[in-house]
Amino acid sequence: MNMRKLLISTALTGAFFMAPSAQAVTVLPACSMTDINATPALSSQSCSGFYQGNLLNQASKSTLVPILNGLLGSTTFSVSTFQFGSFTTNSNLNGAKSVDFSALPFSTKLNGMTLIGIHYGAGKGSPSDVAGNTRSDKSDSTAFYYFDAGTNLDKINLNFGASSTLTLFSTGTAGAVPEPATWALMILGFGGIGAAMRRGKAKVRVGYAMV
């Protein structure tokens, strides 16, 4: 009986070590708050990666969803319902070190807490092409960033080369500023309410005097 337990335990231990990791392998270097920057400066920034390979696709959702939720500190995304095509992606960075979100394909500006993913190739200046890394793990890689973009930020700068793809997973919405015509209507509305209140008070006074 004890021998049977030993064999089962040994088999389970072997299966544990043989099972593939659910998360992609991290390559050199680890991501940093200095990987991206903007004017004005970004704040409340956190990151995850660099992960070996391109995780910005539907096939990687089982790895991608836990990473995104980890940065958000929530269970916003679910593997069962995740659809990569619902997010805007620029797959033609071609090594660019500046990304303009006000231009196509994003056509938006970043506001408040923003979540992005960036994929780099293995070319010169890429995250895996760091000084002293002579190992065979030079490859394409992906990192994810969660940061406060402030108000109506249009551009961010990348401090690594060989950029390939950027996906915008979420960003906030700037508070709407009323147009001049809207202000005028609001003032007229407040004026009308004030006049009605004054008339109401006058009628009360008159009624009291007549009693």
Describe this structure in words.
The chain is an alpha+beta fold and 211 residues long. The protein has two domains: 23-170, no CATH class; 181-211. It contains three helices and eight strands; from the N terminus they run αββαββββββα. The protein has helices at 2-18, 61-72, 180-210, and strands spanning 36-37, 43-52, 88-90, 98-100, 113-120, 141-148, 155-158, 163-170. The strands form two sheets. Strands 2-6-5-8-3 form a five-stranded antiparallel beta sheet, covered by helices on one side. A three-stranded antiparallel beta sheet has the order 1-7-4, with no helix packed on it.
List the helices and strands and how they pair.
Blueprint (H helix, E strand, L loop, with lengths): L1 H17 L17 E2 L5 E10 L8 H12 L15 E3 L7 E3 L12 E8 L20 E8 L6 E4 L4 E8 L9 H31 L1
